[in-house]
Amino acid sequence: MRSIVDAKRVYVVVAACAVVVYLAALWNRFAMDDLYVIAFNPLVHSASGIWRAFSAPYWPPEYGGKMYRPLIIATFSLDRLVDGSTWFHAVNVFWHAAATVVVAALARHWAGLRGALAAGLIFAVHPIHVEAVANVVGRAELMAALFTMLAVYAALVRESLAWSTIALAFGLLSKENAAVAPGLIAWGWMLGLHRPARRRIVAYAASWTALAALYGAIRWQVQHPYARWDVVAPVFHSATWPQVRLTAVAALADVVRLLVFPLHLRVDYSPNEYTLVSSPLDGRFWLGVAALFFWAGVLWWAWRHHRTVETFALGWIAIAFLPVANLLFPTGILLAERTLYLPSAGLALAIGGWIERPSRRFVNLFPGDNRFILVPVKWLPVAVILVAGAIWTAFRVPAWRDDKAVTMSILDDSPASYRGPARSGALLQSAGQAGKALAAYQVAARIYDRDPSVFVGAADAAFTLGRPALADALLIRVDQLCFQCAGYLYTQAVAARSRGDVATADSLAAHAKEWEAR
Fold it and tell me: Which end of the chain is more exposed for a tag (fewer CB within 10 A), N or C?
């Protein structure tokens, strides 16, 4: 008798679940970085942006020209030819469904059909994916993760050097963290998931080296005019090397919490919700160390018990998270749920490998009935987690409905963060309430006084109110915090111009040019 569980059914089910839980995203509009990268970006509004994106930075030059993600901008330009924000969000949901199918495919090959179903469903409904899927610019995470997993699949399952290299190239053109693919492939080789001949390994290494050189050269050519506009997470402003690493280790406690028990989600993880860890005696540091030892202990246990799939999956989490962990180098964020999209595939694969293993304990689903259906006991908690995760994900999606919804979410979920008042100030300024905007920025500065963007926003409001002396004083503070960081002023000038305040935009731009001329 043919089993009711086959690969095609598994892929259809997990893809459908990935779509259903995000249907509410189709009513979302543009929010936060969507506005700067998409709505205000001339490149996106032109059909030529599809190919011009490959010679332009991800962020428009007037916003600092940061990063190089041409494939993302190209897809945005293509989306703009089709429809508005609804279509953008629909495409994001498609990319998430595609990534979910690849997770299930990896689990099917290494674990089995039941493991594939479990892994795919876990990945489809995990609540930490909401930011990546429901916010349009999260597409960079979705596409980079998809192509990274395809690169791993091509190398470890299909043993195709060409397809693995092509997938890796597409991943790098989507987001920089796709660079972890070689590490994941090498990890699989070490564990014996696939062991190519030595000559084949050399060929892979040569292809990675050539691709890295080509990508690095193109990226440098596009990015070097904007190299002076450095961006670090607000919590790391003026932080020393040890402080950055201590804070990064402390954040690992939240990484484990978000992966395993994502009940409390946040849009923002900025000060004073999260502050700098300056001493190894700080309790937060030791919580992070405990989280690290917890992960290492589970990894060691899986390896000792010859659970190859689970060992590989747990290693996947660490390898995929490393580029954004702030351990090797400080990044523009301390912690963001969207950056856990690719690492969470490791968690899904680990659960899939565990589910597929033979069970010793069973339970009858209908104990008071004549029917007698036995299922492994371990399926029950996984089923509860899946249902709870799907419900929480669906309810969380509207938090990204628009800029106002995002701001309200920050105020509710991260009340100690300066970002809530700062974003309120931006919304009030856009609504023509400069006086209230200035007051909101002042509240943000009292909470955390080391983010230049807060003082630039306040200067914008002061110029609008006809208080140039106050605006100049605020810009002096910006200059003290971020020497020659004219990008902040250009960004605010564009915002002022978009609301029709030409005089304020000109004042901010003039100050930016003065700084650049020094």
Answer: N
